[in-house]
Amino acid sequence: MKRSSLGSLAILLALALGGCGGKDEDQAKTEEQSVVATQSDADIPTWLSPTDAMDTGRWLASREAGRPMANDDAASAQMRRSLGQAQAFFIEDPRMIANRTVQLGQMLGEAGKTERYEDLLEGLTNVARGAKGRQLYGEMCQHYFNTRQQGDEPAAAFAKLAERYGAQRDGETKP
């Protein structure tokens, strides 16, 4: 009887240990696919971090296109110019402005109001150009999103923001 219990215990232990070290086929496939996805997406990070070496204009153009763009591509160059202009009117650095532009674009897209990143960047820069001092880009993005959610088309939303932010310059307060 003692020998039978030890034999059963040995079999159970062998089965348990046999399942510990190996991966089943589905798990191995999932890990392989996730590595492939990570490698293919590595050229365009989801968000641009301070340590990313990718040019900000190229990153923004690539995110909008949904594929890696060349650094010397016309869209990359245009985004670089627009980010450079925006930098003069906003407190955030170009990297944060680019990240916020993508975030705003995604929020608008989820609401069924897809807009080009370039149009958002230029429109908000024009609003800030008429305001007093440097502005917070993230805050302005939120104001723009809220205005669009109220039903205004892009031109009307930018006009409302321009009036509101322009009042700062004139010493007025607008709600």
From TrEMBL:
UniProt organism field: Methylobacterium brachythecii
Protein name: MxaH protein
Domain of life, per lineage: Bacteria
PROSITE patterns: PROKAR_LIPOPROTEIN
